[in-house]
Design brief:
alpha/beta, 7-stranded mixed beta sheet, 5-stranded mixed beta sheet, 12 helices, about 40% helix, about 20% strand, binds zinc ion
Length: about 300
């Protein structure tokens, strides 16, 4: 698989698809990397729809960040077993999207407790099982489970912070409000200064804004940005430093600003979609493919105000 990808990428590069090659050159999909002692980052293969996972070792058990799609859950479970003989006790869903949560059932079957902020359960009630049914039509891993809908988290966190501390490590779960989704959760390791962001921060043009609050997103990131952070482990894309948080916030600010300017000058959505340009400083988050949808979502959000 990896060799095939390398060959394909080399082929693309030779054919002039150099941008693709360069932008993905530091990617290592479906591999596990040690970030700090007992903290591993598993990079999901976006071609398989997988999100990233983080595996955190406690004294007697493991915590996994995000359930992933069912196929990603199986792969992450196998990696967790390879890394440690300790059982996975908790799986934290950073938000309600299928690529972060549809694997819940597999983790609970394996004995783990799934947990998330209250907004995740609320969004599942509002949006499911429609999305699950649609996913089952295109994804065999979802169809194979033969379920009517996704399994909601077993435990809902109603406070804005929840802490697990077994003496060996302190793990904080934070909700700073509505950014990527209403239920966005961050996982923070204060001693290691590692922040797992789910899709509130992505490293690349992977921002899905259909359930977002683009206007509030930078506010949420400003709150997360107050933490002491050395490593940012995003929901999609490779790990980075604290600059990822500020960059992602700037992308949302610039997106909204550009769409608002177009709207205020009387342009129609389609006109803004075909003419919008964002500053070079946020180019890491911009792709032609994703920008149209992001402009539409920003436009709709502004229309409601
Ligand atoms: Zn998402």
């Amino acid at each position: 698989m990896h060799r095939l990808r390398a060959l394909l990428l080399a082929g693309f590069a030779a054919l002039g698809g150099l941008a693709l090659f360069v932008s993905r050159s530091d990617a290592n999909p479906e591999t596990v990397k040690l970030i700090a002692p007992g903290v591993w980052f598993r990079e999901g293969d976006m071609d398989l729809g997988h999100c990233n996972n983080i595996i955190i070792e406690m004294k007697d058990y493991l915590i996994v960040v995000d359930a992933n799609f069912p196929s990603g859950a199986k792969a992450a479970m196998a990696d967790a077993r390879r890394i440690s003989s300790k059982p996975v006790k908790y799986v934290f869903d950073t938000h309600h999207h299928g690529d972060h949560l549809y694997g819940n059932l597999l983790w609970t079957r394996a004995g783990a407790t799934t947990l998330a902020f209250q907004g995740v359960a609320d969004e599942l009630k509002r949006l499911e099982p429609a999305r699950w049914e649609a996913a089952a039509k295109t994804r065999t891993d979802v169809a194979e489970l033969h379920q009517a809908g996704p399994e909601p988290p077993k435990q809902d966190i109603k406070e804005e912070i929840f802490v697990l501390n077994d003496g060996s490590r302190k793990v904080e779960f934070h909700h700073y409000g509505w950014a990527h989704t209403r239920g966005d959760g961050f996982v923070y390791l204060p001693k290691e200064q590692v922040l797992c962001t789910g899709d509130a921060v992505v490293n690349g043009p992977y921002n899905a804004t259909m359930d977002a609050n683009i206007g509030n997103w930078p506010t949420v990131l400003a709150a997360a940005g107050k933490l002491k952070v050395k490593a940012v482990l995003p929901g999609h894309g490779v790990p980075g430093g604290k600059e990822l948080i500020a960059g992602q916030a700037e992308f949302m600010t610039e997106l909204r600003k550009a769409v608002k300017a177009g709207k205020d000058s009387g342009k129609k959505l389609e006109e803004i979609q075909s003419s919008v340009t964002l500053p070079e400083s946020v180019s890491r988050w911009v792709s032609e493919k994703s920008l149209k949808g992001q402009v539409r979502d920003a436009y709709n959000e502004l229309s409601k105000e």
